[in-house]
Specification:
Elements (H helix, E strand, L loop, with lengths): L2 E5 L4 H12 L3 E6 L8 E3 L18 E4 L14 H28 L3 E6 L2 H4 L6 H21 L3 E8 L2 E2 L10 H10 L6 E2 H12 L10 E4 L10
The structure holds NADP nicotinamide-adenine-dinucleotide phosphate (NAP).
């Protein structure tokens, strides 16, 4: 039985991952910005200047950072403040989290950190400049931390394409949007939260013990295949 902390494990990919890890008998701590607290669910806003991170009082075998953004706009509408906001949530929020739990990760026998990027880092996509910049930073940061923390803590990244979660709901409002989005992917479907959670669960588990500094595309083939 392992102890995992999922920052933002109440919706989308994080919620699917929490469900999976709990069903395997692990202790799973989750967070959200609103709602009721329990012994394993905590309130946290990583955008606070000095967030109150929950005290778990135990080593942490796995840390997953779920907060992210999809702000798609042409560059003429993307002002510096939009880039800063995306960077604060995607990158700085994780840095604050890592500082809060670095020692608890080191105390574990062998810990794993999982971050989320996007397919739009490896594959250039219109209107993704801000999110691609922040998630590109996450990929570089993850590799750097993987080097710094080896062999004690593994650090890997999952890079999804469009996945059916609350974060993506504006892009998946209508059947026409869903069909067009599915059609753009070589595997002809958009992602389900579970598809992405499965990859994160693998990276947390001992099945990936010899992997660190990797970015895994879970993207319906989008980053690797061109349909003809
Ligand atoms: N869905 C996609 O199509 C897609 C595609 C590419 C990459 N990704 C990446 O995958 C990751 C997970 O995305 P998702 O689709 O599962 O998103 P989601 O459903 O919006 O879940 C994000 C989680 O992060 C938490 N969160 C958001 N802002 C926070 C803050 N300021 N402080 C603390 N927690 C905060 C949310 O908690 P609350 O309960 O407080 O809202 C929520 O539980 C993200 O990093 C995203 O960028 C997603």
């Amino acid at each position: 039985m392992k102890t995992y902390l999922l920052i933002g494990g109440k919706s989308g990919i994080g919620a699917a991952l929490a469900e999976q890890l709990k069903s395997q008998g692990h202790i799973v701590h989750t967070t959200s910005r609103e709602g009721a607290e329990t012994s394993t669910h905590h309130l946290l806003d990583v955008l606070d200047d000095d967030p109150t991170f929950p005290e778990l009082n135990s080593p942490i075998d796995g840390l997953v950072y779920c907060p992210g953004s999809i702000n798609l706009k042409p560059i003429k509408s993307l002002k510096p403040k939009h880039f800063r906001e995306d960077f604060e949530l995607n990158v700085i929020g994780f840095i604050k989290t890592l500082h809060a739990y670095r020692e608890a990760l080191i105390e574990a026998k062998s810990a794993s950190v999982v971050l989320f990027s996007t397919v739009a880092v490896q594959t250039g996509m219109s209107y993704h400049a801000s999110v691609a910049a922040s998630k590109g930073a996450i990929e570089g940061l993850a590799r750097s931390l993987a080097a710094e923390f080896a062999p004690k803590i593994r650090v890997n990244v999952v890079a999804p394409s469009l996945t059916d979660t609350p974060l993506a709901k504006r892009l998946l409002r209508t059947d026409a949007q869903r069909e067009a989005s599915a059609e753009r992917h070589p595997l002809k479907q958009i992602g389900e939260a579970k598809n992405v959670a499965d990859a994160a669960a693998f990276l947390l588990s001992d099945q990936s013990l010899w992997m660190t500094g990797q970015v895994i595309g879970v993207d319906g083939g989008m980053s690797a295949i061109k349909s003809i």
